[in-house]
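User: Reviewer 2 asked us to show a designed sequence for the structure in our supplementary figure. I'm pasting the structure tokens here. Could you produce the per-position amino acids so we can include them in the response letter?
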């Protein structure tokens, strides 16, 4: 009789509900299992997570520059600066076209600094109708400098890959927004010429627009990933001793195989090879198998990998 009573006490769920401590007693083991499971999963996937965090490049926000022709690098041909500095209809038309394609998104079609892409910028894009507060200045040569060097810290990009003639044409067009821009003086032209070698022309490294550059990088990252996956599956299916050595490494293997995709010089250069693979050694506190390779194993690994990449 007494026993039966006790038994009923235990399963009286009304009572259990009234005492939270008992609830805790019942669900606690569940929580414990859950927490341990998540912890184990995390630790086992730590390396994979780091590997996966090779993030795609951020979206390019400078699409506005796409319409500018690439300067082919090497040779920026010299220009006749005296000639270029005199506005005429052809230059103004060209300047207007370039302005609308490349600048108006920020500076506005009317040059009042109200372009849609400039709304969020602080400071606002220059209003070309205003006379005060210019950072480099309103002179012809000041504007040339702005286009050459940009005012990066204030949101104005450099247009150094825009051919000098085109830059000057845009400046001529900007100067039509107001009729009292300072006149172009021979002194400033001379100084400009000296500073940027406009008459002589210059040899610069090839310059490509940011958008193109980042597209190229993105493509490269994608094809690296493809190659990595290919090599990984070869290694996983191979019975070659070097492949087996790699397979013993677990996740460290993926890091290694990905690193080797990025360069080629390790194929023939033992030092480079050792450098590359040592940068991938990480075995969560255990001694990596890579560290205990013999010279023969290392050589075999190098030639095996060179053969499959
Ligand atoms: C992404 C937006 C953006 C684009 C596109 C842009 N600008 Fe600007 N620009 C700015 C901002 C912002 C400023 C203000 C910088 C400052 O106040 O120092 C500025 C300032 C200027 C100035 C004045 C510099 C000074 O001395 O204060 C000139 C000249 C200029 N831009 C020309 C151009 C030309 C020409 C183009 C096209 C080839 C162009 N900008 C395209 C954002 C832009």
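Assistant: Here is a per-position design you can include in the supplement:
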């Amino acid at each position: 009789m007494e026993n039966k009573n006790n038994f009923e006490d235990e399963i009286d769920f009304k009572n259990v509900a009234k005492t939270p401590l008992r609830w805790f007693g019942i669900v606690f083991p569940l929580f414990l299992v859950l927490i341990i499971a998540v912890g184990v999963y995390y630790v086992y996937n730590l390396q994979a997570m780091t590997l996966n965090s090779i993030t795609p490049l951020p979206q390019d926000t400078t699409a506005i520059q796409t319409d500018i022709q690439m300067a082919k690098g090497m040779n920026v041909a010299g220009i006749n600066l005296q000639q270029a500095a005199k506005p005429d209809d052809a230059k103004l038309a060209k300047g207007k076209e370039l302005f609308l394609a490349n600048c108006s998104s920020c500076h506005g079609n009317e040059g009042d600094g109200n372009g849609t892409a400039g709304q969020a910028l602080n400071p606002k894009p220059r209003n070309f109708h205003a006379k005060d507060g210019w950072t480099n200045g309103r002179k012809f040569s000041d504007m040339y400098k702005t286009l050459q060097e940009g005012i990066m810290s204030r949101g104005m990009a450099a247009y150094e890959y825009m051919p000098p003639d085109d830059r000057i044409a845009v400046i001529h067009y900007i100067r039509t927004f107001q009729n009292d821009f300072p006149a172009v003086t021979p002194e400033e032209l001379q100084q400009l010429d000296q500073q940027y070698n406009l008459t002589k022309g210059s040899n610069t490294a090839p310059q490509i627009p940011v958008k193109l550059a980042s597209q190229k990088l993105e493509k490269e990252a994608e094809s690296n990933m493809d190659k990595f996956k290919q090599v990984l599956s070869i290694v996983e299916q191979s019975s070659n001793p070097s492949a087996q050595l790699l397979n013993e490494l677990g996740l460290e293997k993926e890091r290694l195989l990905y690193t080797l995709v990025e360069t080629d010089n390790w194929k023939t250069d033992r030092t480079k090879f050792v450098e590359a693979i040592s940068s991938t050694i990480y075995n969560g506190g255990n001694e990596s198998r890579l560290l205990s390779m013999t010279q023969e194993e290392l050589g075999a690994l190098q030639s095996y990998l060179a053969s499959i990449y």
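For the response letter, you might also mention the following. The pocket of heme C is lined by residues 64, 102-103, 105-107, 117-118, 121, 123, 125-126, 134-137, 142-143, 146-147, 151, 154-156, 159, 170 (CB under 6 Å). Residues 150 and 158 are 4 Å apart (CA to CA).
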